[in-house]
Amino acid sequence: MDRQILGARYTATAITLHWLIAVLLLGQFAFGLTLDDIPSGMPERGLYVNLHKSSGMLIGLLVLLRVGWRLTHRPPPLPATMPPWQRHVARWSHTILYLCMVALPLSGYLASNFSKYGIKFFNIVHLPPWGPDDRSWYLLFNQIHHLAALVLAAFVVLHVLAVLKHMLIDHDGLLLRMWPARTVRGTDFRSDLETR
Question: How far apart are CA 126 and CA 120, in angstroms?
Fold first, then answer.
């Protein structure tokens, strides 16, 4: 593999946040889907719903940290072999991914504050709602929450397919930009420009 391709990498902080958020979002998706199997009115439903809300809030803080890091640290350039239309699609799809990752926890948080329950943070600390118990506002933010989840899931699939194309067809080392640094055949390919 060309050392120049491997040298164009994201920072260690961006890589860590990328994979941590990816794993947490995957778990949160699975968690959210299982909530539909718990009937309303059952005591354990409130327990699990509050765990979902609490973990969503923490993921939301990590997403904000990731967005802040991305805005203050320029990403490595895309491979020179990528045609302009693919660069354009890549930029727009990343923007939509970020917007969904922000909208998802934010809409869930807002929906919780327009219900009488609020949030019981990890079922320990009760955060009472600051908004009125308003069904219409709750449903609006809840629908935005579900829509953001669907759009995010669709763009994650598109993102993974694009990475597979670059790995299996283009062979341009694109995945290595976001892969944790490692030594290949005794040579350390981490960029000297990489900052933490």
Answer: 4
